[in-house]
Amino acid sequence: MTATTFDPQAGYIVTASTAFVNFNDQTFATFYQPILGPFAFSLFYTFRARLIPKPTISNRTMQSELLAHINAGGQQVLEALHRLEAAGLVQTYFQSDEVGDVYVYELQPTLTPEKFLTDNLLSILLLEEIGETAFNHLIEQSRQYKLASPNVNLTNISHRFFEEFHINSQSITATPKTITDARKQSPIEKRPSLTAGMKTDFNWSTLLHLLANQPIVSSDLENNHELILLEHQLYGIDEPTMKKLVLRSIDLQTNHFNPQKFKQIVASTYNVIYTQPSKVAEEKSPVSNKGLTSKDQQLLKTAADYSPVEFLQDLKAQTGGYVTSGERHILTGLVEQEKLTKEAINILTWYVIGDRGHSTLTANFVDTIANNWLQNGVSTGQQALLQLKNFNKQSQEKKKEAKKPQRNNWRKTIKEPMPEWSKKDKSELMKKASSQEVAKLRERIANRKKK
User: Fold this and answer.
1) Which residues lie below 8 Å from residue 260, measured CB to CB, with a gap of 6+?
2) Is 289 left (phi over 0), alpha (psi -120 to 50) or beta?
3) pLDDT digit string (tens) for 298-352?
């Protein structure tokens, strides 16, 4: 179950994995904060402040209390929570019982700086956020206490375990019951995988074939298999283009593939300010669909030829803009959900940037459209375009209806009786009064004054 709204009436509990003792505040602040953003960073510490020893389901607290404490709305908290989950810092569990719905937020430890740098997803995201200069500074900072002397010839003379410690041989062959019981009560936890469920249409065999006669250590490719597939997933890089990027990342002296250099080359290649469209989509057979114009069909062909990030880059090229890391995060989320096709995601991007004229994709607006489409059974590019045309048609009809003059049909015609003087002829009305009539009128006025 994936939560789409933050329920203030549900309960929540904060727990931590057994490995949470390895959490490092310095690493969290320097390596994680740039990719999480300030609100997710703050939410994590709010969670950590609510850790209690031996928590149980009955220790639940209303989530409304969490909203009040951090002074934020449900949508803002939900987006921050999703970022913490995606970065592997929180695992969220749910159940519904006789008391009501309850969420369990299990905190995870930070990676060490070295493991963070070797993690393809996190290190690439950090590089894109802070740039090469700050990224290299973090690498130097994390390795500041390692021996810096060059050309040394050291031999490891450290003592081995059994040279200093002695254990009963029977305990080794038959593990004591106390230890086996402890292992059963708390099985070894595995750190959540950030790439679980990631699918790709990249042809790995084709890439190997293209690099077959190139000066590169073949084992390096297999060792960096996940990294290369991830970059393809993020930017839609095809096999021939990937070959060029890999060759640019080779150390010319050793012929070894340099993963850090590869990340920087890809980031600089796909994270630049565009002034011209990068390419024209290769023409395919026209898409025929009732209700679509020739321009609509051309748009669908283009949407089918580009990956989501590449499609957005070309849209930004027309305005001189560039794709932000937040927009890549939004598009990656849509791809990972696997509910909308690539074409539908590109049509959504075109609607927000090209049709509505927004400068960037925003999570709330994109999620609103995507949810509306899914609720109406829209998943393909053709369905998405037809849905937009139908929406625009309804909007225009509402505007026309609003402009029509309103008739006051509710008003009733009231007939008043005409006064007697109005029935007289005009000549009779304009006739001059006689001296006797004038005298009578003066007499009536005098009598009224006496009263």
Assistant:
1) 117
2) beta
3) 888 888 877 788 788 888 877 777 777 678 778 877 876 778 888 899 999 988 8
How far is it, in rounded angstroms, from Cα 226 to Cα 120?
A: 8
Strand partners, 102: 11, 95
> What does residue 368 show for φ and ψ, rounded to 5 degrees?
-60, -45
The answer to whether 334 and 366 have CB atoms below 8 angstroms apart is: yes
Residue 125 burial (C-beta neighbours within 10 Å; 0-12, 13-18, 19+): buried
Strand partners, 93: 104
For residue 164 the two structure tokens come to 């200093």
Report how far residue 71's alpha carbon sits from residue 74's, in angstroms, rounded to the nearest whole number.
Answer: 10
List the domain boundaries for the chain. Answer: 11-110, 204-270, 294-402
Q: What is the DSSP string of 373-441?
A: HHHTT--SHHHHHHHHHHHHHHHHHHHHHHHSPPP-TTPPP-PPPPPGGGGS-HHHHTPPPPHHHHHHH
Tokens, residue 172: 């080794």
Q: Tell me how far apart the alpha carbons of residues 345 and 343 are, in angstroms, rounded to a whole number.
A: 5
Q: Identify the architecture of domain 11-110 in CATH.
A: Orthogonal Bundle (1.10)
Q: What is the pLDDT of residues 57-115, one digit of tens each?
A: 988 999 999 888 888 888 889 989 999 998 899 999 999 988 889 999 999 999 998 88
CB contact at 8 A, 121 and 226 = no
Strand, coil or helix: what is 13? strand
> How far is residue 212's CA from residue 228's CA, in Å, rounded to a whole number?
16
Tens of pLDDT, residue by residue over 376-407, are 888 888 888 888 888 877 777 776 666 666 65
pTM exceeds cut of 0.70 = no
DSSP 37-97: -HHHHHHHHHHHTT--SS--GGG-EEHHHHHHHHT--HHHHHHHHHHHHHTTSEEEEEEE-
Q: Which of 50, 60, 54 is nearest to 98 (CA)?
A: 60
Strand partners, 101: 96
Contact 20, 108 (CB under 8 A): yes
Structure letter (DSSP) for residue 406: P
Contact in structure between 141 and 133 (CB atoms under 8 Å): no
Q: For residue 145, how many other CB atoms are within 10 A of its CB?
A: 6
Question: Considering all CA atoms of the chain, what is the largest pairwise distance in Å, rounded to the nearest integer?
Answer: 149
Distance CA 304, CA 285 (A): 11
Q: Look at residue 424 and tell me whether its pLDDT is greater than 70.
A: no
AA letter at 163? E
Residue pair 322/272 in contact (Cβ under 8 Å)? The answer is: yes
